[in-house]
Automatic annotation (TrEMBL):
Signal peptide: 1-21
UniProt xrefs under InterPro entries: Alkaline_phosphatase_core_sf (IPR017850), Phosphodiest/P_Trfase (IPR002591)
Keywords: Signal
Pfam families named in the record: Phosphodiest
Coiled coil: none
Protein known as: Putative AlkP superfamily pyrophosphatase or phosphodiesterase
GO molecular function term, any single one: hydrolase activity
Keyword Signal: yes
The keyword Signal belongs to this UniProt entry's keyword annotation: yes
Length: 441
């Protein structure tokens, strides 16, 4: 995609007006729990912008999200209105027992198997923009795209992001904001400030019909320091300022804009060391490791961790003998007080919750435990908070607030995450026929 810098602001305005009179800005605050805003004063949080926004918005007391309650599946449901079994983004990391993809995530929009809000607006000739949204690399429907992506976690990743973004976009934003690209590429609050400044500038030089923005520091600080920690609260208070700046910029440019503030999941504290469940599958003879490299040589059934829960994938899903061995292992883990397993479900339970199609079993962890996705012997990560538990868990509820023309302030109660995309599609006046959710208004 080429940056259409030669088009003037008036031309963008005409295209936006032709598509719809109700542009939408959706801001995701990764890991924001509903009570963090609803009970901000009680929690000792100073959130003037978010609490003021809530008073003028229709807001949910909780959003029931997807299996598993992790960032990439949830964010894809937010823009499609379907569960992972239909949109295809089944976890953060891809299932990769041989580690051929070197820990790769579901970064690429081509992996989404159903139409998105980006597609619907683009097909109606509306302008689409996005900063840091998961699963957006390579999207042909995002006119101005600065996607979320990393590989080596080195300075070269900045060059990679510039190359993957819309041609010329990052240099222009860097020049007009005075912030170099590396100011964005990290997970601390200062990096979200950089993303916010870039998003504000994008709004100024081309107000899009639909824009998605993903801010990540709250999630990072809750993992590192724990939910309700002083550090997490400070990160959220900075995000409050970021949101206030974004909303003010959007409304200054287009008073009729609809603002949706969302999150992907909640959070729970972690008190036990992270567990690599591969060892249990090795001990049960379901995985064979090379004795020297500890790499997987062969597998009949393998765990696919998602923070607070773990999917189990069978190499041959119809092999009843392997199924029986997995059931025996899961029952053993559930009975072991040190294994951290609270419950498990079979294929029928996964289908009921819309989880990954290639998973045959899934086990949920007890509060305080977390799992990793490493198939090789590594030191466990030190976490103070996590998510990924079954969506039945109230602690995993996400946030939704929306304000704009014709939307009356009201409490919506608990909602289904699948209803958010159809709601925005209705406001944008675009079709989203594959969505399973329904408009909230």
């Amino acid at each position: 995609m080429k940056l259409r810098a030669s088009l003037c602001a008036a031309a963008f305005g005409l295209m936006t007006a032709a598509a719809s009179a109700a542009p939408v800005l959706m801001i995701s605050l990764d890991g924001l729990r509903p009570a963090d805003v609803i009970e901000a004063k009680k929690k000792g949080l100073n959130l003037p912008h978010l609490t003021a926004f809530m008073k003028e918005a229709a807001y949910a007391t909780g959003v029931k999200n997807v299996l598993p309650t992790v960032t990439y599946p949830d964010h894809t449901t937010l823009i499609t209105g379907v569960w992972p079994d239909k949109h295809g983004i089944a976890n953060n990391e891809t299932f990769d027992p041989y580690n051929k993809n070197l820990g790769g995530w579901y970064w690429y929009s081509s992996d989404i198997k159903v139409p998105t809000l980006w597609d619907a607006v683009h097909d109606k000739k509306g302008i689409v923009a996005s900063i840091g949204w998961p699963v957006s690399v390579g999207s042909l429907s995002i006119d101005y795209n600065l996607p979320e992506y990393w590989r080596a976690l080195t300075a070269d990743d900045v060059k990679l992001i510039v190359a993957l973004s819309t041609d010329g976009l990052v240099p222009r934003l860097a020049k007009e904001t005075g912030l170099p690209p590396y100011a964005l590429f990290g997970e601390d609050p200062k990096h979200d400030v950089g993303r916010t400044r870039y998003a504000q500038k994008m709004l100024e030089f081309t107000f899009p019909e639909f824009m998605t923005v993903h801010l990540v520091s709250l999630d990072h600080y809750q993992h590192t320091y724990g939910p309700d920690s002083a550090e997490a609260k400070q990160a959220l208070e900075q995000l409050d300022t970021d949101v206030g700046d974004l909303v003010a910029t959007a409304r200054r440019i287009e008073p009729n804009v609809t603002i949706a503030i969302v999150s992907d999941h909640g959070f729970a504290p972690v008190v036990h060391p992270e567990i690599n469940y591969t060892k249990y599958f090795v001990e049960a003879g379901l995985i064979t490791l090379d004795p020297k490299s500890h790499k997987v040589v062969s597998w009949d059934a393998a765990p696919w961790a998602a923070g607070g829960s773990v999917a189990v994938v069978l190499n041959k899903p119809d092999d009843q003998s392997v199924k029986d061995r997995v059931v025996a292992l899961l029952n053993k883990l559930q009975a072991d007080p040190n294994a951290g397993v609270a419950r498990w479900i079979d294929k029928a339970g996964i289908v009921e919750r819309g989880g990954a199609r290639n998973a045959s079993f899934w086990f949920d962890l007890k509060q305080g435990y977390s799992a990793n996705s490493n198939f090789t012997a590594q030191m466990p990560a030190v976490l103070r908070g996590t998510h990924g538990f079954f969506p039945d868990d109230k602690e995993m509820r996400a946030t939704f607030m929306i304000a704009g023309p014709g939307i009356k302030p009201k409490k919506l109660g608990e909602i289904d995450m699948r209803d958010i995309a159809p709601t925005l599609a209705k406001i944008l006046d675009v079709p989203l026929p594959k969505a399973d959710g329904k408009p909230l208004f």
